[in-house]
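The protein record passed on for reference:
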Amino acid sequence: MPTDPSMGRSGRTRKRASRRVVYSGSLLGHHPALRSGGSWGSLTEMSNSGRPPRNIVELPTLPKLPKLDLPAGRLRLVALLVLAGVVLFSSIYTIDPEEVGVVLRFGAYVRSTDPGLHFKVPLGIEQVIKLPVQRQLKLEFGFQSQRADRGPRSLQGESNMLTGDLNAAVVEWVVQYRIDDPQEFLFRVRNVEETLRDMSEAVMRNVVGDRTVDEVLTVGRQEVADLVEVRLQELCNQYENGVKVDQVVLQDVNPPDQVKASFNEVNQAEQERETKINQAQSEYNKVIFRARGEAEKTVSVAEGYALDRVNRSRGEADRFNSIYGEYRKAPEVTRRRIYLETVNEVLSKTGRKVILDDQLEGVMPLLDLEGKLGDLGGGGTNP
């Protein structure tokens, strides 16, 4: 069937005014009009003849958007207002109380701003970098308290260390620091945090390598932390990275997991040894000090007895000398006095006394044996 291009175009125009026709792209190649060498006009004629072609989907007509007819002056005013808003928005910035702002102009340092509301040159000419100078920052080594991308670093690799006595130890520590100089922090060293991590790890390995494993695990932990803090601050000052190290804390120090059981057994044996030594020392002190006390007591008693004997002997000698002096002055009187004093001392120690006159006659001396036997036999009498 011959087709007229003008008819096809007019038909398409009329059809576009009334409705939109969408042909299925997957079936257009199989339509009889197209297979017979026909054109789009013949296909539209067929749709206008009242016979809807097959494989055709009809869509509803879309509404037309109204045209905006604004004068050129008003458009320029709107553009100027939008540009002024962008400029104003990009020239105002705020610094929080714990921060300081570093202003860069075309990448070069210009000034630092304190907390508050500030202005800068807009449109990217000046940029502001905010640094938390009042906040205490920290770096963790050997462990991770919060989820963060640590990059290629290995927690186990940075915590495994070799001590001075060639023993392995797993050291976990924290470095707490502040940004002391914002300008040095931004421009002196590239990637300050990674550099500080490398410096801290190097200093810790150096200090741990100078000590034995017992010092690192037990008594020398605080000394290690203090020395690492001092040396790390010296390196920061040498690098001029603008960092102030506040504190280095050894979080945990343990032997590796592979030898932890053996290490615990060795520690337990050493503790038992110390316990036995302390018990033996306690017993030694108890026995030795008791023996020393008894010896000192015996010596003191002996010295006291010797002093008493010496003083008593001296007193008796002085008494004898005084009596002898009196005896030489009056021998008969002194002899009589000594006799009476001796008799008095002896008779006062005896029991019942019977005194007889040696000139008395006709009196039988009576020895009272009954009372004496009663005293010896517990009060009994003999028949």
Notes: Residues 5-59 form one domain. The longest helix spans residues 260-329.
